[in-house]
Write a structure and sequence with these properties.
The complex is a heterodimer of chains A (419) and B (292). By secondary structure, chain A is mostly beta strands. Chain A has 5 helices and 30 strands. Chain B has a 4-stranded mixed β-sheet. Chain B has 2 domains: 117 residues, Collagenase (Catalytic Domain) (3-Layer(aba) Sandwich); 112 residues, 3-Layer(aba) Sandwich (Collagenase (Catalytic Domain)). Classes of the chains: A mainly beta (419), B alpha/beta (292).
């Protein structure tokens, strides 16, 4: 028995000595809490050091599923000032921010800023929100860029320093301009080989990539001179992330990648500047016509049509992806008849035994006639509950009520360029 | 001899255990106390933290929030207005009736502001929560528009009623109420299905609001919070709406609420109601845009 106790004691003594061997070398000279404290302080100093703020391509949606948007954020004395291409170029909104110790150093936008938190707001119809993050784990911070990952939805985003001589509104204007000018229907070119079809949706900011193997999608953000994908877009061994629009028909890579995105022409496609000109609009089954002059608006999204025969302008909507136009129902503006000012609405409708007009927004198809450039045929869009469209009416409205039409284009047929 | 050996062993053991003891704590604090304070932070310090030991948290802290919802932070300007209103209509009101010490010892230690509403999957809206008597969360702070500030009944529904409701939970957590209360309308509690009922149906069944049909403790909190934020004529209108049976049940429950407040806290709920309503009528005179 005593032997057992002795050996037990001996063992304990051995343990005791063992515990003193100082073989735990610290890998870092400071302990963990000191290091994170330091990281937080340093990160905050870096954030505030950018006197003209940081550019941020913001990606809501888990797994980059809800597009990308261009932001500018500036940090100063615990406040953050935000501007975005989604708001007016001159608008900014200031709220609070903090660098805190959490899952590593975390940048939190901790009071409400509508420009940022709009993607995180829950509503009765959208309980899942747009899955936007407003708390970010900062993994790397240098004076040029901050790499961070959304805490809740997990998207990695990068803030890059904005140079001091760039005015925010100019930057945002050029982004808005850039998104208006790009063409959306593209071929993915690897050198001279077309290997995929790419459609950019400028509303959802998602690109759909179709290859022989199938379809995938990827988020992109418009930049001042083109677009940037949320991560490198890979199509069969070819890869590209940042692209520059050449002003006419192609996105060129900003890196050494061989990939480019070239506009994919379809038959009858025309750029808006080519469509510009004088047209005859035939109606009454082609027996009569008006002469219209079409000019693009500044954003190149619409063609403004002027006709000497009547005192108001009409807008044709231009589609960048199909290279053609259509005539939607629309508000034309005020017009005086016998001292009463009416609001004039252009509406498509049906002139049969029982004439009626559709609400605005609806339209007839305007289909390019094959083999004849700049010749478009008005086509009944579809039988919707058995109802047709064949004419356009200029309805006079008073206090929101339609009083009757002051002019019509009965049985419209063709729109043909004459000059 | 053997004893000595054992002593020797014991000595060596003791020495060997203490020998490692050279881990003095580092003198550097890990808490950074140098956060900058703006005028709202200073106002809150002066009006909440110093007198009541309450932290009015208007800046987002995810550990304070309920992670099951998708929430956004409060707008700082609106949180400032709410901070003024909460103090005026709640802290100061109870202080007037029951004395400062009552407020100091019973109000939650944390008031946490959330900008958005919290929507449940059944499309009901969470307006507030009280946790363990320590914390009250007020949601929907960003809806506090100037238009809403002029409308007492909406303000009441979203914020004032909510804070009295949650405060009732805290009082109940500290001193339980007579469980005879739960038995008065015991068969009427429908738990999560309360949102399917309308006000009239709830009144008829002897409940002051549909939410009161959730369970006994919610019923109790709804009774008190509705009573102290509703004028006598509006209360009578509810009783009228409830019919003879419903009104009798509501009144029976109110008697328990009344005696609970009197016996447990020495507070007359009619006094609370008078003060709350008087102060509510004065909120248009408060300058919510200035912190002083």
């Amino acid at each position: 028995m005593k032997k057992v106790i002795y050996s037990l004691l001996l063992l304990l003594v051995a343990f005791g000595f063992q515990s003193c061997s100082h073989d735990e070398n610290n890998i870092f000279s400071e302990n963990a809490s000191e290091r994170i404290e330091k990281a937080v302080t340093v990160d905050q100093q870096i954030l505030e050091s950018a006197s003209n703020g940081w550019k941020l391509n913001y990606y809501p949606g888990e797994g980059y599923s809800k597009g990308g948007y261009a932001y500018i954020v500036k940090f100063k004395n615990g406040k953050v000032t935000i501007a975005t291409e989604l708001a007016g170029s001159d608008s900014t909104f200031t709220s609070d921010y903090a660098m805190v110790k959490d899952q590593g150093p975390v940048l939190t936008f901790n009071t409400y800023n509508p420009f940022l938190h709009c993607f995180s707001e829950e509503s009765i119809s959208n309980i899942d929100t747009y899955q936007g993050d407003y708390e970010f784990v900062v993994s790397k911070a240098t004076t040029d860029s901050i790499v961070m990952t959304g805490k809740k939805w997990g998207n990695k985003m990068i803030m890059t320093r904005m140079s001091n001589n760039v005015k925010w509104s100019v930057y945002l204007d050029s982004i808005k301009n850039s998104i208006n000018n790009i063409l959306c229907n593209l071929k993915y070119m690897n050198g001279n080989d077309s290997i995929a079809h790419v459609v950019l949706n400028t509303d959802t900011r998602m690109a759909t990539i179709t290859t022989s193997e199938g379809q995938s999608s990827i988020a992109f953000t418009p930049t001042v001179d083109g677009i940037s994908f949320c991560e490198p877009l890979n199509v069969s061994n070819s890869s590209v992330q940042n692209l520059m629009w050449n002003g006419k028909d192609t996105f060129l890579p900003t890196s050494t990648s061989k990939a480019s995105l070239t506009f994919s022409h379809s038959a009858g496609y025309h750029y808006i500047d080519e469509i510009t000109g004088t047209y005859n609009l035939y109606f009454n089954s082609g027996t009569e016509y008006y002469t219209l002059t079409l000019k693009p608006n500044a954003e190149k999204t619409e063609l403004i049509a002027h006709c000497n025969a009547f005192p108001f302008n009409i807008k044709f909507t231009y589609s960048k992806s199909t290279g053609s136009m259509f005539l939607k129902g629309q508000d034309i503006g005020p017009y005086k008849i016998n001292d009463v000012t009416y609001d004039i609405e252009l509406v498509p409708g049906y002139l049969g035994s029982n004439p009626y007009a559709w609400s605005d927004g609806y339209c007839m198809n305007l289909v390019p006639v094959s083999g004849k450039d700049f010749c478009y045929k008005f086509v009944d869009k579809e039988k919707w509950w058995g109802l047709h469209t064949d004419s356009y009416f200029f309805e006079a409205c008073l206090n929101g009520e339609r009083e009757g039409y002051i002019l019509s284009w009965p049985y419209v047929t063709y729109l043909v360029k004459t000059n | 001899m053997k004893k000595y050996i054992i002593f020797l062993f014991a000595l060596i053991l003791t020495v060997s255990f203490t020998s490692c003891n050279n881990d003095d704590p580092s003198s550097t604090s890990i808490f950074n106390a140098t956060t900058s304070k703006d005028s709202l932070d200073l106002w809150l310090l002066k009006n909440y933290t110093n007198p009541y030991n309450v932290s009015f948290k208007y800046k987002w802290e995810d550990i304070e929030s309920d992670l099951t919802y998708n929430l956004v932070p409060a707008d700082s300007a609106k949180a400032a207005k709410l901070a003024i209103l909460v103090k005026y209509l709640w802290f100061d009101a109870y202080s007037e009736v029951a004395g400062e010490d009552f407020v100091k010892s019973n109000v939650p230690r944390i008031i946490f502001c959330v900008g958005s509403a919290a929507w449940n999957s059944d499309h009901t809206e969470l307006l507030g929560t009280a946790e363990g008597g320590l914390k009250i969360t007020l949601y929907n702070v960003n809806s506090l528009t100037d238009v809403m500030l002029e409308n007492y009944s909406t303000m009441n529904e979203y914020y004032f009623h909510t804070m009295h409701h949650e405060f009732t939970h805290i009082l109940n957590q500290k001193k339980p109420y007579n469980t005879a209360f739960n038995q008065i309308t015991e068969s009427g509690y429908v738990s999560g299905n309360w949102y399917q009922y309308g006000s009239w149906g709830a009144h008829q069944a002897g409940f002051i609001t549909p939410y009161a049909m959730d369970e006994g403790k919610e019923d109790f909190a709804e009774m008190l919070s509705t009573y102290v934020t509703t004028s006598e004529s509006d209360w009578d209108a509810i009783l009228n709406d409830a019919g003879t049976n419903g009104a009798a049940l509501i009144t029976e429950k109110l008697d328990i609420v009344r005696s609970y407040m009197k016996d447990s806290w020495n507070i007359d709920i009619d006094d609370v109601r008078d003060v709350v309503l008087r102060r509510a009528s004065e909120i248009s005179k408060l300058d919510l845009n200035r912190l002083n």
